[in-house]
Amino acid sequence: MQPFITKFDPYEPTEYIVDAKSGTRSPAPLEKVAIIGSGSWGTALARVAAVNVAQQDGFHPEVLMWVRDPDECARVNETHENARYLPGVDLPSNLVAVSSLADVVRPATLILFCVPHQFLPNVLAELAPGTVQPNARAISAIKGVDVHIREEEGTADIYTFPAVIEKALGIPCSALGGANIALDVGRGQFCETTIGVPSPQDAALWHAVFDSPSFRVHPTSDVSGVSLSGALKNVVALAAGFVDGMGLGGNTKAAILRIGLLEMSTFTCEFFTSASPLTFSHHSAGMADLITTSFGGRNRRCAEAFVRAGGSKKKKTFDELEKELLHGQKLQGTVTAREVFMFLHARGRLEGYPLFEKVYRISFEDMDPMRLFDDL
Predict the structure, then answer these.
(1) Is 41 annotated to bind ligand?
(2) Is 23 annotated as a binding residue?
(3) For the chain, where do the domains classified as CATH 3.40.50.720 start and end?
(4) CATH code for the domain defined by 19-221
(5) What predicted TM-score, i.e. pTM, was given to this entire model?
């Protein structure tokens, strides 16, 4: 095992059931997986988990996935397909859509959060005390950051969403991220992902849930690094989209990705001191995810369209492009770009992150996209 991979013992069931008649001993299905979120990425991960747990000792074979709309929920269960967000991908019969969030979470011991990050506060608010089992564990595939500006003190605080979930629910929370386009994962194409875990036990459990021959899972103890890489790469992907929108070539895009990766790593290690730069250089959650998102993701696509439409001066805003191009999915990069800008401004550190600053100003302050390269 590589030194940047967390060491763990493979998951083994801890309790067994003895049949009274035959005397045979079989693992008790103590672990039950729940998926909060039914967008393209949540559905793809739900499919991976459902296929795995059906074959895994110690796991309940049924995986519950929260689908808020009752009509959509019924369609998913009837057709075994999420035609809206993951069309053409067959879902296993043991993946069951449920429209009640509480009913999804209540029996679960392993909970995946995969909702747009601006929706997480409402989701957590719906989980009344006692809904989540005290021995449950969570994992976040949410891309974003939680920023609190303290104007009276002239500063700001920033939190990862695993930290937000841990504080709200009182359970340990890991992070998942990597070079993972949802449709490719749903189709079973080979890829890797990274899970940032607070303990070897979390590594063993989440590895058992998600690892497969076509979806390789590599754990690391750097929960903050995995979470931040998933958030910040969307900001850099906007810059990559601006480059494409201006019709510039591979040299320029490669330079932006290198500079962007450096700002991602530097930002994370500056404000989350336990984070490791190896997460960005050695893991799928780092450079690999940045490459994938900057060539094929929704943030790149919308940023290219934004520039080709003439930027905000031509009244083609990112909100309009989100509705026009994403068909109900949410754009994460612009929200994160604004939050990161406000945090750095409050901390007096904008000069240390010129690419992040330019992405914000091009997106929201009518800066000419050609100024992206100033002072880089």
Answers:
(1) yes
(2) no
(3) 19-221
(4) 3.40.50.720
(5) 0.92
How confident is the model over 180-216, as pLDDT tens digits? 999 999 999 999 999 999 999 999 999 999 999 999 9
Q: Is 296 annotated as a binding residue?
A: no
**7 catalytically annotated:** no
Indicate the CATH number for domain 226-371: 1.10.1040.10
- Measured CA to CA in angstroms, residue 324 lies from 152, 293, 301, 327 at distances of 39, 19, 12, 7
Choosing from 7, 21, 32, 233, the catalytic residue is 233
pLDDT of residue 293 exceeding 90: yes
SS3 content of the chain, % helix, strand, coil (to 5): 50, 15, 35
Q: How far apart are alpha carbons 285 and 194 in whole angstroms?
A: 6
Helix (H) or strand (E) holding 33: strand 33-36
Q: Measured on CA atoms in the order 198, 175, 91, 63, is the torsion positive or negative?
A: positive
Intervals of CATH 1.10.1040.10 along the chain: 226-371
User: Binding residue per annotation — 182?
Assistant: yes
Contact 126, 132 (CB under 8 A): no
Largest CA distance in the chain: 77
Helix (H, G, I), strand (E, B) or coil at 95: strand
What is the Cα–Cα distance from 308 to 371, expressed in whole angstroms? Answer: 15
